[in-house]
Amino acid sequence: MSFAPPKGVPDYVPPRSGRLLAVRDAMVAPLRLAGYGYLELPAFEETALFSRGVGETTDVVSKEMFTFTDRGERSLTLRPEGTVGAVRAVLAAGLERGALPVKLWYAGPMFRYEQPQSGRQRQFTQVGAEAMGTDDPALDAELVALADQAYRALGLTSLVLHLATLGDPEDRAGYSERLRQWLTPRVGGLDAETDRRIEKNPLRVLDDKRPEVRTATAGAPLLTDGIGTAAKAHHDAVRQHLTDLGVPFVDDPRLVRGLDYYRRTTFEFVHPLLGAQSTVGAGGRYDGLSQVIGGPPLPGVGWALGVDRTLLALEAEAVVAATPPSTAVFFVPLGATAKARAVALVGELRRGGTSADLAYGDRGMKGAMKAADRSGATHAVVLGDRDLEAGVAQVKDLRDGSQTAVTLDTLVDHLEAQR
Ligand code: ATP
Ligand code: MG
């Protein structure tokens, strides 16, 4: 019998899993320096939280949710994203009544029932950051800058930051109507899905990546032309802060985000080498979301960065993300007495903070030295029975091949001093 993971669910094994972890860590590092606290979110929540919070007309809710009924007949859904859960958790803990803004980060798997392809999976990992409690445009800029910092630290050079504003809800409502009227004679009747979008949420038509739809909608009216004074001032401030922060961006008035809760600022980090799945991270402001899920008014802004897609971007740019720390010292015991001694010495080194390993499986010299080379260790310690009798070990520097006999009493100190 053999099992494979479910469709669209990836396995990551070493060495690639180490690179995935390095991407995740690099995304979190700037957040720690900026006062963001850790949020551990439930992996599944009440279905209604997502359908209400993310929005019934979104692709995520209408066709991508992993929903199931538990043994108590409750409808539950594997989290497709983290923002709605983050707002719910903040409200549940009453954090909105404390010091503001509340700044949080989370990381972990998200689940969406999508057609699997390169960069599009049914389980994928996001690192997310959310800041709630103020509509200060400097906070929008802070978040964008922190994502930019993470991508730079990873060594990505071809990413382009697209920035837009969706205005306030009233701007969006007026624009939706204008857009509906513009779209109907042009792409109405194209297919059932497009008709549904024109009727329910015309902005989504502009998010259609099909070339024929892109061409047909190229001259569509832009939301930016009709946004109110407050939203306009907010957007101008975000742009100015980003410029002051040295974060390059392009204005993209056609940027449409898939989730309904966005207001004002929206942005996407796009990588040109990734084909159709080119957005590696995205976010925006969601000032109305708290009320949509039954909370008090609570402005917020945040992003989610795709860890899997960012790894693909690094691979496309041939940037090798920092690999996990390799073993520093590798023991090659030859014989039973030597092995017992090696096991104890490895334990001692590890307790002292030096990474160490040994050739398990009682292999001969040749096989064990091969294992030492593969481990990436800088030093191999060869322990033979004759050496043991003489009270020494042979320490081989694997980088230059030089070898020194070191007395066993001083071996740990000697190895620690090599680091
Ligand atoms: P797309 O337009 O590609 O479907 P989205 O707008 O649905 O993206 P968001 O909800 O904004 O994506 O999620 C933020 C990030 O999470 C994306 O930019 C992407 O990097 C990643 N992501 C989203 N869906 C998937 C998926 N199915 N597989 C892998 N990564 C994903
Ligand atoms: Mg999507």
Structural features:
419 residues, BirA Bifunctional Protein, domain 2, binds magnesium ion, 16 strands, 21% strand, binds adenosine-5'-triphosphate, alpha+beta, eight-stranded mixed sheet
Description:
By secondary structure, the protein is of the alpha+beta class. It folds into 2 domains: 16-168 and 228-316, BirA Bifunctional Protein, domain 2 (2-Layer Sandwich); 329-416, Rossmann fold. Helix content is 39%, strand content 21%. It contains 15 helices and 16 strands. The chain has helices at residues 16-32, 47-54, 59-63, 83-93, 137-154, 169-187, 192-200, 211-216, 229-244, 289-292, 307-316, 336-351, 365-374, 385-390, 408-417; strands at residues 37-38, 44-46, 67-69, 75-78, 102-111, 123-132, 160-165, 250-251, 263-270, 279-285, 300-306, 329-334, 356-358, 379-384, 392-397, 403-407. It has an 8-stranded mixed sheet, sandwiched between helices. A 5-stranded mixed sheet has the order 13-12-14-15-16, with helices on both faces. Strands 2-4-3 form a 3-stranded antiparallel sheet. Strand 9 (263-270) and strand 10 (279-285) form a beta hairpin. Helix 1 (16-32) runs antiparallel to helix 5 (137-154). The longest helix is centred in the middle third of the chain and has 19 residues, at 169-187. It starts with 15 loop residues before the first helix and ends with a helix. Bound molecules: adenosine-5'-triphosphate and magnesium ion (MG).
